[in-house]
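Here is one record:
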Amino acid sequence: MIRSITQQKPEEELDRLLDGLGRVFIVGCGTCTTLTNTGGAPQVDAMKEAQTKKGKLITGTVVLPVACDNISKEALAECGQQIGLADALLVMSCAFGVQTIARQIKKVVVPALDTLFIGKETDVGLFDEICSQCGACIIGETGGICPVTSCHKGLVNGPCGGTNDGMCEIDRKKDCAWTMIYNRLRDLDRLDAMKTLQKPRNHHGGEPRPGKLRLASS
């Protein structure tokens, strides 16, 4: 199961973001942050209690089914009166959800969480990073394994000199990403793909600008 992985912002940062905003409406998300225990109903209740102790007036709370979906506008409309009384919405979702809500509500919108990465659940409550959304995907040449996220050093042109017996130099309990890539390409009879040189990424231009990408219509 793929999820946006988040963590709660430091208390002092939340205090700064909410400074001067006495009445707050709290929004959670029923998908990613519910499953990662950062913005579901229990966390929304805990946030309400914490902010009330800090002197905030909580005008209401809601856990949207999917905060990052446009249907959230309809769910928020049902809380219109409570939202109308608030100075700000404190949103416990990923950054995408925060931005979606900000476009729908003419209120100050404050993110309660930091979005870390896109992760896949590998055990109960344990998520491994599978995509950093870098915008320069090379997994077509690495057997579907992303070295940017799977390698602790983010190496894109083969392993470092520290790999030993297929294990990572930095984390001896972690498989070396490039050993996994090698084994995968070998099994697919595509080892020649490892000879492809990945050029240094140009961070100053020549790549699609976020928010300005138009997909070709079919």
In short: DSSP finds eight helices and seven strands in the chain. The mean pLDDT is 85. Residues 41-53 form the longest helix (13 residues). The chain has two domains: 2-116, 134-195.
